[in-house]
Amino acid sequence: xxFIVRVALTAALAAGAAGxxxxxxxxxxxxxxxxxxxAGFEVERRVSADIGGDRRADAVLVLRRVAPAGAPAxxxxxxxxxxxxxxxxxxxxxxxxxxxRRVLLCTRCGGAFFGAATTPVRVRVRAKxxxxxxxxxxxxxxxxxxxIRAEGALGTRLIGxxxxxxxxxxxxxxxxxxxxxxxxxxxxxxxxxxxxxxxxSRVPVRRIPLERVVQGAWR
Length: 219
What we know:
By secondary structure, the protein is mainly beta. The protein has one domain (2-217). The chain has two helices and eleven strands, in the order ααβββββββββββ. A hairpin with a 4-residue loop joins β9 and β10. The longest helix is centred in the first third of the chain and has 18 residues, at 2-19. Residues 1-27 have low confidence and may be disordered.
């Protein structure tokens, strides 16, 4: 059903781009953001911002699986999260352009650093780019920042990843910043004495949609 709805919305967008939206299409409002929340999930956070460049209030949803009934409050279960990107339509509805099922940490995936507390995930939009920040670990604390933007009419693209790994005992830090538009990677290492070294390298320039972003692949 989701596929059929998306195909229909794609056709409507294409028709609108070619010759404008007809009176019949304008009269039928598109689906609301809530229509893109699958069964068994709830909205943990919604960010309204322009990500498509058309000055409309698009929607970035952080979804969280609904906790099972009777789950103990003192030991909450690990609940999966999803990141959903929606573009606003002229009729007030939305169309989905990306869904990341493996980019966000689950609610108990922060490691010993967060313990039983809910693992936080920070999502914001700056200059039409969706920025995801999260961290996990114990002595070795890994902080990730993903930068994702809309690509074309109904696509998304990972354009950059920053990863910072800090040894909380020694103070040594390794920071990797990868620009997936230019293929440039900058690695900065700071040892326990505060001495820094910087290395530059190249990585293949690839178009990675949100659906293929796996947080565990970036460390």
